[in-house]
Design brief:
InterPro entries: GIY-YIG_endonuc, GIY-YIG_endonuc_sf, UPF0213_domain. Belongs to the UPF0213 family. It holds the Pfam family GIY-YIG. This protein has 3 helices and 3 strands, in the order E-E-H-E-H-H. The chain is of the alpha+beta class. It has a single domain, classed as GIY-YIG endonuclease (3-Layer(aba) Sandwich). It has a 3-stranded antiparallel sheet with strand order 2-1-3. A hairpin with a 5-residue loop joins strand 1 and strand 2.
C-alpha cells in the first residue's frame, strides 16, 4: 500500500520553511536541493525538519493546507526545533 507524506523543509540560507506533500520524501527533497523546484531553488540547501504519513493523497493535501494556515504554522512551531 502506498503512503503519502506531508513534509516541512527548512532553508539553511535564511531559515524559511517550505511545506509540501509527496509519496517519496527522499526523492522530493533531492528535487528541491538540485534546483528542480522553481519556488525553492533560490534558497538552497534545504533540510527535512518534519513529516507526517497518511494513507491517502487527499488526507495529505488537507494536512498540507492546514500547515499553511496561521494555526498550522503555530502547530509547526511547537514541533520543529530551531
Amino acid at each position: 500500500m502506498k503512503s503519502y507524506y506531508v513534509y516541512v523543509l527548512r532553508s539553511d540560507i535564511d531559515g524559511r520553511l517550505y511545506k509540501g506533500h509527496a509519496n517519496d520524501v527522499a526523492k522530493r527533497l533531492k528535487e528541491h536541493n538540485t534546483g528542480k523546484t522553481k519556488s525553492t531553488k533560490g534558497y538552497l540547501p534545504w533540510r527535512l525538519v518534519y513529516f507526517e504519513t497518511f494513507k491517502t493523497k487527499p488526507e495529505a493535501i488537507f494536512r498540507e493546507k492546514y500547515f499553511k494556515t496561521g494555526s498550522g504554522r503555530e502547530f509547526l512551531k511547537g514541533k520543529i526545533v530551531s
